[in-house]
Amino acid sequence: PNTTLAMKAILEPLLSNHFNNNPVNIGVLNPCYDPTKILLKKLNSDQHRNLFLTEITPENHLFEESAEKLLFSIQEAHEKRKLDVLICDYITSQSGRILPLKEISDFCKEEKIILIVDGNHCFDFTCPEKTLLLPDFFLFSTHKWLGNIKTCNVTIFNTKIGNTTRNFEPDPVGFSFGYKENNKLFDKFSWVG
Predict the structure, then answer these.
(1) Does the pLDDT at position 168 exceed 90?
(2) Which helix (H) or strand (E) element contains residue 100?
(3) Closest Cα to residue 86, out of 66, 106, 62?
(4) Range of lowest pLDDT (27-41, 49-63, 134-148)
(5) β-strands 184-191, 175-181 pairing
């Protein structure tokens, strides 16, 4: 999936460069897209990295939108094991729950937690421009936002993340260019970056 590949393009350099291959505690706010969880487990086993996954499951997690209740669950997990990274879906595919992203982002900034948001299931009317800039990373597939072919993902990120002064550079998994002919879209060329 497009966003999972974009997530990989962020996580690999983040883990190896930003955290210098040191142990990293990644919180996953449930419900979270299953391929994201699979990717995290694969990165941990393939790269022999010291990833500690903390699944955060608030009560009534499929529908809960209360900032207070969600933040309580995140804060509780952070107190048990200091989170370095938090990954969440802005709008869940399972129930359509919308996260209070501003409040979660404010908490993460205050606690120096890197926030990665999968924004696949929101559209421009549910996700104003200012929302895109709240987390450290905001990912979405353009086929869901713009109705184009399924080979494109957009990643919006801050070059300065967490409490570091170093710039972050993602490792893109590929680039492609498409064109339209006879009302059909074609992939002209693709290459791995």
Answers:
(1) no
(2) none
(3) 106
(4) 134-148
(5) antiparallel
Please check the confidence at residue 34 and state whether its pLDDT lies above 60: yes
How many residues are recorded in the chain?
193
pLDDT (tens digit per residue) in 87-112? 998 887 777 778 888 899 999 999 99
- Confidence check: pLDDT of 72 > 90: yes
User: Shortest CA distance to 21 belongs to which of 4, 44, 54?
Assistant: 44
What is the residue whose two structure tokens read 């972050």? 168
Using CA atoms, how far residue 166 sits from 16, 37, 129, 147, 161, in Å, is 14, 27, 25, 36, 8
Contacts of 157 (CB under 8 A, 6+ apart): 10, 136, 137, 138, 168, 170
Separation between Cα atoms, residue 156 and residue 101, nearest integer Å: 15
